[in-house]
Specification:
- The chain is built from eight helices and five strands.
- By secondary structure, the protein is α/β, with parallel strands linked by helices.
- The protein has a five-stranded parallel beta sheet, sandwiched between helices.
- It is globular, with a radius of gyration of 16 Å.
- The structure holds thymidine-5'-phosphate (TMP).
- The site of thymidine-5'-phosphate has 11 residues, from helix 4.
Length: 206
Amino acid sequence: MKGLFITFEGGECSGKTTIIQELCKVLEEKKIPYISTREPGGIDIAEQIRGIILDIKNTAMVEETEALLYAASRMQHLKERVIPALEAGKVVICDRFLDSSLAYQGYARELGMESILKINHFALNHLPDLTLFIDVHPEVALQRLSTRNKTDRLDLEDLKFHQAVYEGYEAVCKMYPERIHRVDGNRKLDLICKDCISLVLRKIGR
Ligand code: TMP
C-alpha cells in the first residue's frame, strides 16, 4: 500500500480532537493528500454502530457485545474508508483504532487482550504505520471530564475505570513498542500539537 496509516490514542479528554485538527491544517498547507477520520464511526454504517454503543440508554450492554460492536464498526470503516484512501496513496489520520479496544475492552473491561485480538483478527493485517499515544494521567483526564457535559455512556465511568484504561494503554505500549510513540499529554496543548506534528511529518518524510 502506498499511503500511511497514522492513529491517535489516549484516554478521555486527552486533546486528540484538537491535535488532529492542528495536524490537518499543516497537512493542508503542505499539500499532502490525507483524510481525517475516527473510530467508532467515520462512515454511515459505523456511525450508526457508534450511536448504539455510546447511547446513554444502553446501560444493559454487556462487555462482549460492546467489544464485538467496536470490532464490527472497525471492519466496515477499514474496508469502506481507510483501505481505499491508503491505496490511493493518502495519509490516513484516524482518531482511535484497535489499541482502544485492547485498552478499554481487553484491559479495563477485563475481556483479555487475546480475546480482543481474536475478534479483531481481520484488522490485524492493517495495523497502523505509526500510533501516537497522548499520555494524560487519569486524574488530569477526569478533572477535565468533570467540566464537560456527560454526553455518552462511557463518560459515566468513574476514576477506577479511567485508571484501568490508562494501565491498559501502558500494556498496549509494551506490546507494540516499535509502532506506538508516547507523547506527554500533561503539558500545554500547543506544545503537544507541536510534538505530534513533527513526529507525523518525520514519518511522512517532510
Ligand atoms: P471518543 O471519545 O474518542 O470519540 O471515543 C468514543 C469512546 O469509545 C471513548 O470512550 C473510547 C471508546 N472506545 C472503546 O472503548 N473501544 C474502542 O475500540 C474504540 C474505538 C473506542
